[in-house]
Amino acid sequence: MFSLQARRICSIAIALVAMACFAAPEELVAATPATTWPDVTYTASGVFASPPISGNDLFQLQGQPFDISVVANMATVPKTHGAHWGIYGPLPMVGTVQSRLLPTPITISNNLTNIALATGNPSYDVFQLGSPIKVAGLTIRITAVITMPKGTITRGVIQPFTAPVTLSPANATLSYTDGTNVTVLGIQSGTLNATIPGAAASTSVLLHSAGAQAITMHGDGTRSVRSIQGTPVALGDPADTVALQFYASGVRDASDVHVQIAGQEVPVLYAGVAGHFPGLDQVSVQVPRSLAGKGDVDILLTVGGQTAKPVHIFIQ
């Protein structure tokens, strides 16, 4: 049985279809040649939550990072619309997603993506994306639904957002189906933004707990990597050196990056773009041996004076 969040996905989709049948036209962006209007790029990146909200996660996306971008011109006319919403497509989409079934990230792309922008609800705005993609060689249909603060989008037309949207299990879900089975995943953490490339945009600093790893350089010269999600961090033998690697947002190009563990400033080994996930950043820090046995601790990331919500770990 679907959760309340999953049922909301269905109700929003049904409402959009119903409005497409009965709503009256509105005044839209004039059909000016697209070359005179800028493109808006919708970007979303983050980490899927675990476990799934409902269904069987056949493609093992839970706990894994993703990033996508969809481009639409501001002169684009919706294919269906109502007084407070519009559906646009087909649009080009590119992205990257990690599946536990495969050792390397999967690049996804198509020119068949649709997005819906809705401002009619008195309490929140809605962004919805629908797209067919291929994972492990199979075609699946994904639907992402994100609720955001009222006023994030000023109308149901292609425009930049007033500010980036922080994604969390409370406001973001993604469902996918192979035509028979439906799986609904939450978004543990991430961001959604709509900007005009080259235009100044504010950033939201996030440190993602999902996908975090402990990388140990052993005294004998060997190296080991393991996930630390829900498991303790062991600092090993005195000759071992342990680094923690996290996905993040709002870090790239920053010149002032600080990380504290249990209130102690720790060395930042890397802060920048994540290798396989261009929509995500990455932060790596060294764990001082003085923190051994600290137990439950907070990790704080501060970038340019902005501090992200802490991530909790356990250090043996």
Biggest β-sheet: count, sense, barrel? 8 strands, antiparallel, barrel
Please write the string of helix (H) and strand (E) elements.
HEEEEEEEEEEEEEEEEEEEE
Pick out the low-confidence regions. 1-35
| Number of distinct helices | 1
Shape: globular
**Biggest sheet: strand arrangement:** 1-2-4-5-6-7-9-10
Oligomer: single chain
What are the salient characteristics of this protein?
globular; Immunoglobulin-like; five-stranded antiparallel β-sheet; disordered N terminus; 1 helix; 6% helix; 2 domains; single chain; 316 residues; eight-stranded antiparallel beta barrel; mainly beta
Description:
- This protein is mainly beta and 316 residues long.
- The chain has 2 domains: 4-202; 207-315, Immunoglobulin-like, CATH 2.60.40.
- It contains 1 helix and 20 strands.
- The model is unreliable at 1-35 (pLDDT under 50).
What does this entry show, briefly?
With 316 residues, the protein is mainly beta. It is 6% helix and 50% strand.
Describe the SSE topology.
Blueprint lengths: L3 H19 L16 E10 L16 E9 L6 E3 L2 E13 L8 E13 L5 E12 L2 E12 L15 E3 L4 E6 L4 E14 L10 E12 L5 E5 L13 E9 L7 E5 L2 E3 L1 E6 L7 E6 L8 E9 L2 E2 L3 E5 L1
Antiparallel strand pairs: 1-2, 1-10, 2-4, 3-4, 4-5, 5-6, 6-7, 7-9, 8-10, 9-10, 11-12, 11-13, 13-17, 14-15, 14-18, 16-17, 18-19, 18-20
